[in-house]
Amino acid sequence: MSEGSQVDLDRIEADALQAIEQASDGSSLESVRVGILGKKGTLKQVLRSLGALPPEQRASFGARVNVVKERVGTALEEAKGRLGSGSKAAPTAARRATDVTLPGQMPQRGSRHPVHQVASRMIRIFGNLGFQVVDGPEVEDEWHNFTGLNIPVDHIARDPAENFYLEDDLLMRSQTSTVQVRVMESTPPPLRIIAPGKVFRPDTVDATHSYMFNQLEGLVVDEGMTFGHLKATLLTFFQQLLQDDAMKLRLRPSFFPFTEPSAEVDLYWRGGWMEMGGCGMVDPNVLQSVGIDPERWTGFAFGLGIERVTMASFNIPDIRYLYENDVRFLQQFS
Amino acid sequence: MKVSLDWLRDHVDIDQRVEDVAYKLTMCGLNCEGIEVHGDDHVFELEVTSNRPDHLGHRGVARELACLFDQPLKPLRLDYPEVEKDSAGKGLDEISSIEVDDDDRCGRYTARVAFDVDASESPQWLRKRLESIGLRSINLVVDLSNYVLMDLGQPLHAFDLDRLDGGEVIIRRARYGESFAALDGSTHTLDSDDLVIADGSRAVAVAGVMGGSETEVVSTTRRILLESAWFDPVPVRNTSRRLGLASDSSYRFERRVDIDGADIASRRFFHLLCRESDSKVLSGCWEAIRDGLLDPPAEVPIRLDRTELILGDAVPAAELDQVLCALGFQRSGGDDARSLWCPPSWRADCTREIDLIEEVGRIHGLDRVPDRQMEVRVVPEDREALLVERTKALLEGTGHHESLTFSFGSEGDHRDLEEWWCIGEPWVVRNPVRSNEGVLRRSLLPGILSCVRGNRLHGVESVRLFEVARVFHRRVGIDRPVEKIHLAWVHSDADGSGPSEAYRQVRGIADAVLELLRLGTESSSSTTWNPISTPCGLGVGSCASLDHSGERLGLVGSVSLDGVSGDSWCGELDLGTLIGHSEVEHRYREFSRQPGVRRDLNIVIEDSVLWRDIASEVDAAEMANFEALNFLDVYRGKQVAKGQKSVTFSVAFRAPDRTLTHEEVDVAIGGLMQRLENRFEAQLRT
Prior knowledge:
The complex is a heterodimer. By secondary structure, chain A is an alpha+beta fold. Chain A has two domains: 95 residues; 220 residues, BirA Bifunctional Protein, domain 2. Chain A contains 13 helices and nine strands. Chain A has a seven-stranded mixed sheet with strand order 1-4-5-9-8-7-6, with helices on both faces. Chain A has a two-stranded antiparallel sheet with strand order 2-3. Chain A is elongated, with a radius of gyration of 36 Å. The relative contact order of chain A is 0.10. The mean pLDDT of chain A is 87. Chain B is α+β, with helices and mostly antiparallel strands. Chain B has five domains: 67 residues, Phenylalanyl-tRNA Synthetase, Chain B, domain 1, CATH 3.30.56.10; 208 residues, Phenylalanyl-tRNA Synthetase, Chain B, domain 3, CATH 3.50.40.10; 67 residues, 2-Layer Sandwich (Phenylalanyl-tRNA Synthetase, Chain B, domain 1); 199 residues, BirA Bifunctional Protein, domain 2 (2-Layer Sandwich); 88 residues, Ferrodoxin-fold anticodon-binding domain (Alpha-Beta Plaits). Helices cover 30% and strands 26% of the residues of chain B. In chain B, the strands form eight sheets. Chain B has a seven-stranded mixed sheet, sandwiched between helices. In chain B, strands 4, 6, 7, 14, 15 and 16 form a six-stranded mixed sheet that branches. In chain B, strands 5-8-11-12-13 form a five-stranded mixed sheet. In chain B, strand 11 and strand 12 form a beta hairpin. Chain B starts with a strand and ends with a strand.
């Protein structure tokens, strides 16, 4: 008996669902409902046979009938919605229509931080130019932050007041150039890498300065690399970044201990030159300190300020806005 | 540094337009940040890099222009009349004496003496020069020493000889606790690290930094002793920093002044003093020089082909010669392919071939170097970066805004949370900018929670933030921080949902990330969520820990924020480690196209039984063709007995090769119910 009922029950459900699906108007749907759930409907009949079951099976069989009843009921409701038919008053065309001028129900949208959006874009452009992303630690030692970068022991850049020192000779890296040294120590040339990340300098905070900011470092070491390659690479990058072939870039001679010749990267932006970072040919001392022969290999390096690019791209007037994490600010960049 | 165009014309003829001069300077490394009009003069604001102290005087800048515009640098007059004896018939060594006690810090010291000095008003031309660069005229002697400083970059200091005790000048270390009154009115306590200029009884100047008020030259001064010296850069910088006392002199000494400049500047001063007044200068000069300091510098070679290799542009031998000569280098040998050069005394920065190549490149014009494209290279894909990127996309897509917080944290707030992640002491920052940023963070949550709180207090009603960043842990045996990439996220709503729903939402993010990394807890038994019983900084009884083979990899739970209504719910994952465990591989796998069977079960069970226990029992049942277990609902209330709850879930089955029969599924479900009953006394709800 129980086996037979089980089969019946599944068939009843399948038949009912099929009939509901095929119902083409309200009245045919209603007759399906009566045929199954009505006083003389099939489910009622099955329930009447409950008494014939052994007592220990009655409860679970009853529960199964209820489940089928519920599913059929749900399917009926859905079909009603689909056919637009109430069981009582005949629907008018006006009642059936949806007010399509109601606003949509939007899913909650998130956003990426503008600095990370720009960093991703920069990474993508350099990726297309053949640069591989590498990572370095935010906490560095003096060797990687200074010595390996040709910054002598008595150089002002090492002053404790200019850095965030931890214990012993550990400090928060003051530039992403540290990654240059790490990569050259572990990987023989040719090299073509970028290293984006946070850097730390205890500057006084104002509209254009923060004591933590993000840099994107680049390094190429290969045979025959010249200042001309450095220029072309940066030019191509900024053309892509600003989507402008005619944008103006200038490399203005400057000084950094780890590159020579060195230059500042200036971008012509809204009627004036804006400093975007520094660059230069890798200093032979830097190559020598990691065991690369500077007579055979030459290279160039650059470091660009990601916040600078972000502020320029999105017209953000104050660098501090970037670190407040105010939702009203962040959601503007979704 | 302020540089007057008129003043530059004293050294070199310039007839170019002001803007062209500024541009030329900028493009050779002297960035012109502004041009001020001063009557008929123009004043440039030039940014001088730390390697070029020779640019901290007008003549140094003029030398650059002479080279750029191919003009000669005008000679400097240094001559003046000398007298053997003063009015009392005494010579230089009878009225003064110089003694250098510490030549480790004073490389060169020169002193000359003048008498019958009329230190009154300065002539018009001198006042105009000083005023153009923002200096106030004081008296002739002080003005001339400032003028020479700004002209040649060599600091000078004039003492009132009559106020020097015993006419003595001793260059020595300060005595510990010795006090000093500077001429800017400040007073300082010195220590034995500071170098001073002293007379017979006291310190009268801090070497290279500032003179003292008691021996300064005033309008009534009649006899002066003029110091022109070379002090070692680092000690001057240290003293200046420690005392908080800086000057135009210390700025230059710190950057290393021209060792030959000391004598030249002194003679230039007396040439001008005699030209502008009736002062008399005693013949002779006190001078002390450290051994070896005046030795000529080593020759530096430069190769034409190497120059071309670095710059990417061929510079003719004649141009190279012309540039280096104009900058003051002297050719000492070699041929055109490899020439040898002796750098001038003011270019201590030029000791290697690359330094000379830079000089040639600068003047030749880096902007003239033609662009050269590199060939294209394939970049190997970075799996970790890709998975981090997908994780961020997931968080963004589920309505979270990405925050950017600092790597620093404080030790006090959320200590339990930080320690839950890492028991080792935090790494301490020696000189934090803010007092609540004294350590490196061990957890991302405190920083994000503080942003959430800020947002809520500003009236943002629903805040969803996330961040992927580093935390810094201490591990025994590792002498630097272990940096880990974490993901943290927070939900905080003014009209929040009930705790179990809020928990499931915040936990759902973690589960989705695990799913993305193919580390879902349903399928992998090595990653499990467990209740946290020890303090972890989150609400007791509603926080869970994600464990992977005994390793803590994440937590979720609630936290109450000061001044913010309702609980905020948050989670944090050790994303870097999870990615390390992840074996995401996108490759087609065969899947069953057969119809499946799903059974919904509603059981009544002791309230203390966890879903995890039910799930593991389902796992343990090892039902044939079992596909998935899905939680649907939990109910506590009138319909079930006290201390019990009703749990609804579905169990899905699917065979790889055929349609399952209801009979075999019933057998499996029957077996499962039996297990649940035996283990938890679970009953089907009727």
